[in-house]
């Protein structure tokens, strides 16, 4: 990529453990799923080439994803096309709600929901469901969340208790149940390159493919931290929590990158039937509550 604005993002990407297959899934979920879900290998190679990923690494990544059931492959002559399989589409649909959707502010309620997993229940499925629902474990079988958070079906057999905690006690419990410092550090690492890009990007934004590459990296890196965030009330969070700032930066950059990146897809990306279909209106509503 020729734009110096991408340099801090690419430095950040290269300094962190990152797998090409994971970036491919982000690209499908963010840019291709709204356009039907299928795209040609040539388009994938061109986009990931903007990240410095060579063609052989792209082919290896999509082959692995197809073998693991994340992508489905279709050949037409000498061309290969890959579609996000049901497994991949379902996983990203849940992630999309947390990435792009409105973040409902938890009421400043001092009540907490405590769940005690009894010995007779299937604990591991319950633990996985509780983690996915934003619960944290203060002890291996003692889980908690703000009172308004629903109990997932897999944990319905748990013993449910209501307790009240002052700000200091709630903060101490939250620090036990979630890795809040690790999540905060993730947000700060995200803000280092993308905050710089947000400040330096001209009003006209970036051209075509550069805008798409920046958008892909933006969502890939934001996704890595936001999916770990339990979205707690402010009273339960450490002082100076960077999550809200990170979201504002992400929303602002996404809105500025979206038109040019979509124009590039219109002009260059193909599926089995030719140019990709236009995205639905839901694409343009992403992050709108943040603008």
Short description:
Helix content is 50%, strand content 14%. It is α+β, with helices and mostly antiparallel strands and 291 residues long.
Shape: globular
Order of strands across the biggest sheet? 5-6-4-7
Describe the main β-sheet briefly.
4 strands, antiparallel
First-last Cα distance: 28 Å
Number of helical segments with 4 or more residues: 10
Structural class: alpha+beta
> How many beta-strand elements?
9
Radius of gyration: 21 Å
- Percent in helix: 40-55%
Task: Identify low-pLDDT runs.
Answer: none
Beta-strand residue fraction:
5-15%
Order of helices and strands, N to C? HHEHHEEHEHEEEHHHHEE
Mean pLDDT: 88
Explain what the structure shows.
The protein is 50% helix and 14% strand. It starts with 6 loop residues before the first helix and ends in a 16-residue tail after the last strand. The longest helix is centred in the C-terminal third of the chain and has 26 residues, at 243-268. Helix 2 (20-32) packs across helix 5, helix 2 packs across helix 9 and helix 8 crosses helix 10. Strands 5-6-4-7 form a 4-stranded antiparallel β-sheet, covered by helices on one side. A 3-stranded antiparallel β-sheet has the order 1-3-2. A two-stranded antiparallel ribbon has the order 8-9. A hairpin with a 2-residue loop joins strand 8 (270-271) and strand 9. By secondary structure, it is of the alpha+beta class.
